[in-house]
Amino acid sequence: FKVPTRPVLDGPKDDLTGGSWKWANPKDIRPFSAVAYFFAKKLYEKYHVPIGIINSSVGGTPIEAWTSEEGLKQFPAIISTVEKNKDTAYIDSFRRRGGPGGFPRQQQLTADKGTNGQVPWFDPAYIPKGWKTITVPAFWEDQGVKDLNGVVWYRKEIDVPASMVGKPARVYLGRIIDADVLYINGKQVGRTGSLYSERRYNISADLLKAGKNLFVVRITNNNGKGGFVPDKPYYLFSGNDTVSLVGLWQYKVGEVYMPRTGAGGGGGFSAQNAPAALYNGMIAPVTNYTVKGFLWYQGESNITNAAQYAQLQPAQINDWRNKWNSGDLPFLLVQLPNYGDYTYMPVESSWALFRESQFKALSLPNTGMAVTIDMGEWNDIHPWNKHDVGERLALVARKIVYGENIVHSGPLYQSARIDGNKIIVSFTNIGSGLMTSDEEELSEFAIAGADKKFVPAKAKVEGDKVVVWSDEVPNPLYVRYAWADSPPFPNLYNKEGLPASPFRTDN
User: Distance between CA atoms of 38 and 40, rounded to whole angstroms?
Assistant: First the structure.
C-alpha cells in the first residue's frame, strides 16, 4: 500500500486521500520501495507468511516532518514552528515569495531552441551548427559550462553492429541530473523526471539500424551541477552485444533559467519539510492498522545536525509507539551508507557524526539497525543496491521481531582500554569471530593522543578484539574506525559476513 503524499499543517487527519492495496508484481513494484520489497520477500521465503507493507515515504524530507506535534514537545523551537504553520496567512506570505510548491521561481529567458525551431534538434533532418564537444559521463559545470540552470542538449552518432538490428534493445543512461528525454533516430524512447532514478530505456526491435544511429538527450537542470553522473553504466545492450556510450558527445544550450528577481526576497516554503506535516497527512491516518513493526531509512535531510538527531530519533520512535498503543513495537533502521569523495587521511565528518546518532537509537528497547557502510556509492546519495539493504533488514527482523537466535548485525563498538602504546577495542555481535572482508590488513582505523590529532593507525584482530596502534602516537587515548563521509576500505566484519559499524571513542 503506497500512501499518497500529503503534507498537512493544521493537525492530524483520520483518512487518506487515496491509495489501494496491490499485489507485488513487476508493474506495480517499480514506484514502490525496493528496500521494503526485498525485506518482505526475504521474510516470506523464510516463514511462508504473506507480508503486507504500508509505504509512507517522501524523499528529501526531515525526521521532524514525520513526528507528531505531541512527539516534538521537548523541542520548543520546533513546536513554535508547528504553531506558526497553522496560521494560513503566515504560510501564504512565504508561498508568495516562491512559485508552485513554494520553491523559488525560475525566470525563463528564452524558450527552448531545441524544440521551438523549424527543425527540432532531435530530428535526423536537423543540421547541427555551433555545437561544442563535451565528455559523457560528467557534469557540464566541470567542463567549462559554469553556473548554468536550464536545458542542455547532447547528441552523438552511435555505431550499431548489424547483429543488433531487428532485436529489442535497452539503453542504460546511468543517472542524469535533473530530468531527461532520450531520442533515438528522431523517436522519443523514454523520459525520467527524477534525478535519483536510474535510466533504463527499452528500444523496439524496428528502431535501430546497422551503422550510425542518432542519439539525442535533452537534459533539464534546475539547481546545482547538471549532466551525466560519473561512474554509472552508460551503454546500449541487445542479446550478446554491447555498445558503449561513454566518450565525446556534442552539446548545445537550448534554454537558460535564472532566479526571478523582485519576488519579495527570501526563500520559498516547502510544506512537506514542515514539522509534523507528513505525520499529520501520511502517518496519522494509518495508526489504526495493526502492524508488526516499522522500517526507517532516512537521514540525509538532517545530516548537518547530528546532535539534535540523536534526540529526534528516540522522540519519533516513542511517538509512533505511543500512537499505535501496542507497546514497544519493533523499530528497524538503516544506518546511512558511505557517500561522497573518498578521504585517505583522518577527517572530521558530518556523515560519521550522523551515523553515531543513529547508533544511539539502539539504546531503546526492541530496536535494530542494518549497517550499510559497505553499500554506498561515492556519487549517489541513493545507492542502487536496495536488495542487500532489504535482506539485512530482514536479518535484523528475524532477531528483533521473530526472536531467532542468530547473528543479525555486524560488530558494534562496546568498549576500549589502553594497554601501553596500544588501544584494545571490544565489540558486541562478533558472531563466529572477527575478520577482514578482503583478507588484507585492517584499514580505516585512526588513533590520537591527548591532542586529538588523529593519524592513520595499524590494527589487527586478536581473538574477539581489535588491537590498534601507531608509532606516531606513543601515548594513545582515542581511536576511530571508518570515521568519514565515505571511508574507502572499511573491512572489519564478523565471520557471518556483516560489516562493523563506524565508531569513535573520543566523544
Answer: 5
Number of other CB atoms surrounding residue 423 within 10 Å: 25
Helices 306-324 and 350-360 meet at what angle, rounded to 10?
30
Instruction: For residue 250, give the CATH number of its domain.
Output: 2.60.120.260
Q: Kindly state whether residues 246 and 277 are assigned to the same domain.
A: no
Same domain, yes or no, for 203 and 300?
no
Q: Which tens digit of pLDDT belongs to each residue from 434-489? A: 999 999 999 999 999 999 999 999 999 999 999 999 999 999 999 999 999 999 99
| Integer Rg of the chain from CA | 26
**CA 488/CA 497 separation, integer angstroms:** 18
418 three-state secondary structure:
strand
> Interior CA angle at 276 toward 287 and 94, to 5°?
145
Amino acid at 127: I
147 shares its domain with 201:
yes
The verdict on pTM exceeding 0.90 is: no
Identity of residue 491: N
Do residues 170 and 145 both lie within one domain?
A: yes
* Helix H or strand E segment including 216: strand 211-221
User: How far apart, in whole angstroms, are the C-alpha atoms of residue 131 and residue 63?
Assistant: 45
Q: Are 227 and 146 in contact (CB under 8 A)?
A: no
User: What domain range is 290 assigned to?
Assistant: 26-93+269-400
Q: CA–CA separation, 479 vs 447, rounded Å? A: 4
CB atoms within 10 A of CB 60: 13
Q: Where are the beta strands (DSSP E) in 111-210?
A: 132-136, 149-160, 169-173, 176-177, 179-184, 187-192, 200-203
Q: Provide φ and ψ at 257, rounded to 5°.
A: -110, 155
Q: What is the pLDDT of residue 361?
A: 98
Report yes or no on 285 lying in a domain: yes
Give CA–CA dist 503/507, Å, rounded: 10
